[in-house]
Amino acid sequence: MPPKPERILLVEGAEDREVVYHLCNHHKLDNKQHFAVEAKDGYERLRDDLKVRPRVPGVKTIGVVVDADEDLAHRWQSLRDVLEHSGYTQLPGQPEAAGMIIPAQGTLPRIGIWMMPDNQLTGILEDFLQQLVTQEDPLLPAAFTALDALPERRFKPTYRSKAAIHTWLAWQQEPGTPLGQAVAKHYLQANHELAQRFVTWMRRLFIPAPEAPTP
């Protein structure tokens, strides 16, 4: 069994992991050097991992990327409960727009939390990616219009943005491109302010600035 990485980014699923990989590649952030990315097959499995990971010997930094889903405050409280149970104290009452970074406390590692799409709104990974579509692109509004015109809707209302982005991707030069590769193919704007904010959060979390020497 390979050794547990000292720095780990936990994400909900394989698509999240691929988006992270491609954004890191675009912004020259060598994630293989600085941290591992582990897909957990859903929020509940990720939360279960977070209950024990801070106590794994040698772990120095844990990053968490989750969907805010339908209720950002409820999701944040769910994560706070886990961290408080592990022993973390003085946790903020709400997430920060730039992404949360909680310093190491005693033997507990440094923790970072990013809530999709932007730490401020409800939503999921696909809402984050929609922000990376060029504003002038006529096909994304057309995708929503097409969804609204369906004679029968077979997906949950919360999956509307997921259905829209995959419909939009089906209309690109190479239909059906996976979400992560859509970044690499420049269908999505990796230099969008939101994408840069997300990458900056990963840099701050996993490559913290060295402390100034004590005079």
Brief digest:
By secondary structure, this protein is an alpha/beta fold.
Task: Please explain how this structure is put together.
Strands 2-1-3-5-4 form a five-stranded mixed sheet, sandwiched between helices. With 215 residues, the protein is α/β, with parallel strands linked by helices. Helices cover 42% and strands 12% of the residues. Helix 3 packs parallel to helix 4 and helix 6 crosses helix 7. It is built from nine helices and five strands; from the N terminus they run βααβαβαββααααα.
Number of helices: 9
The protein's oligomeric status is: single chain
Number of extended strands? 5
Strand content: 5-15%
Main beta-sheet strand count, sense and barrel state: 5 strands, mixed
Write the layout of secondary structure elements.
Blueprint: E1 7-11, H1 14-26, H2 31-34, E2 36-39, H3 43-52, E3 61-67, H4 72-86, E4 100-102, E5 110-116, H5 125-131, H6 139-148, H7 160-170, H8 179-184, H9 193-206
Helix pairs in contact: 3-4, 6-7
Q: What are the key terms here?
A:
215 residues; alpha/beta; 5-stranded mixed beta sheet; 5 strands; globular
